[in-house]
Amino acid sequence: MLLLLDMRTQARLSVEDVHELLRTSGQFDGQLPARSTLYRKLSGVGLKNERRLIEAIVRVCVPDAQCANTLREQAISLLHQAWSEDAEPDRPEPGEVPDDGGSLAELVRVQRELIDTQAQLTAALQTATEAEKESAKSRALITTLLVLGALGRPAAGRVSTPSPDGASYAVSGIELSRLRTRLAAAEAERDEAQRVARAAQHRLAEAGNLLTAHGTGSTDPAGLSAPTPIGPVEWPTTRADPAGQAAPADPLRSSCQALPDTTAIEREVEQGEGVLSFEGHERVRSLEQDPELAEVLAEMLRLDPDGSRMESVIDGAGRHLLDPAHTGRYLWSQLTKVEKTGLGIAVYHRMQRELGLADGLHLDFMVAGHDVDMKFSRGSNWMFPPELQGGLCLVVRADDASGLWSIGLLRVRSELMHAGSNRDGKRGLSAQGREAIHWIHSNLPLPEHALRRLSADTVSSIFAKASGQARTEELFLQAQLTPITTADLSAVTMQADGNKRAREARRRLAHRGVLVLNGTRPRDVEWAWGLGLPALEPSTWMSVRLTPAQPGHEGTPTIMLDGTPWCVAHPEDLEVPLPTAAFA
Question: Which InterPro entries does the entry mention (predicted)?
């Protein structure tokens, strides 16, 4: 694994780059592992059984044939060494727990498996999210092409698809076929990552039941603390506020229903002329009948094809009102009634600035030359005033308790409203009105924050510490293998520069064997990759306890610190101070 990492580093290739080179090289004849599988293989999971893959990676990373042959022989030699170690009889591990009839040994085994499963789950969830964003981009582009095609208008520079005569907008079957292939690949990768994540959740649940059966709770008889699990609702650390409001059962829900069924539409491509026929497709026909709505929809998809910009808008608005550096708050439920009212206003201002939307003549925004209003809700109970009847409105909903957000477009009409109104004459949407919303992005995840993922008891133990530095160190101890954001640090330190406390915690926790990683440091990113941890975003931190690699850690991903291999520690491993290189 380290040999392949060194080759990738020298070649300046990411895992995505390697995957693309392997795909274009044609060495696997359609049997190339998915990108999520390649991530796991390059992290050391099952790598020793992938000789063909290793040889292919050497060839694409090292262009010089002679050097590639040398490295290939070295890799094969390391594989033979790994196979011979597997054939050796089991050796007793240092510090082996005393015999108590097998109960304690079984518990330690479960705890070790728990740590490995947690890392796999986090990596799978991250891969699923990235793949969903990629598929969202493809669906958005397909939908934009279809909308403009339905209108019979050129893209006006907004979409790089040729228009044969400048008057009509033709979409070729070949172009749609390429987009459809890209979409299918991204959705297949997402589905595989979701399958791996659900399998890991199931294993976590089984491990939790076994720990409970031993009557240990979260600590074993020898005082070895079990790590805080990071899975969704099947495990205690769900997104929940101190009052115990839990997250929905499936955080992996996708936004597939946000856009029209492109597969059904593509079947209507006329192969002879290569032009789309939209007869019989109700959703697209409704866009034909409302060209202003269609143009606004296409423009919003162009401005934010995967939803990442609106995601940052909503998350930033929430953090602004929570003001964690001064209040220590981290949940929207902790906002006052007045502040909750201001959340929609904050989203409006940030949305206008992020997407570069001009002021409207009579409503909030000017989008694609049309007046558009914006309504925000934490549920789905938007209220529309009488003067908005007949107008276009962007409806946004988001809630950090569920961790999901959506944005859609609606033509406000009286027949879509409830009959009753409030004292201001505002009316809400009926069931028919909610069905009339053209969803641009639906049920996408908000950015994760560690304090929202931890249990209420764990968060209480963190905030019980007297100083900001002590709370920061407790956060890194309690939330290992969990991405920690600057908002989390601001909340626990109640200071604007929480990163300063994190850097100090990096030095102070090293004597306990805890490595604190920062996504802005290239060396830390490589260490996280070498240990098989989830990829670090530039603005996030992550902690993990390490131990020198010894017999019993065979096959575990390792990194080199002062010439010694280190790996993720198991619960029964003693605390070993990290060398200076880990926190210099």
Answer: DNA_rep_MutH/T2_RE_sf (IPR037057), NaeI (IPR015210), Restrct_endonuc-II-like (IPR011335), WH-like_DNA-bd_sf (IPR036388)
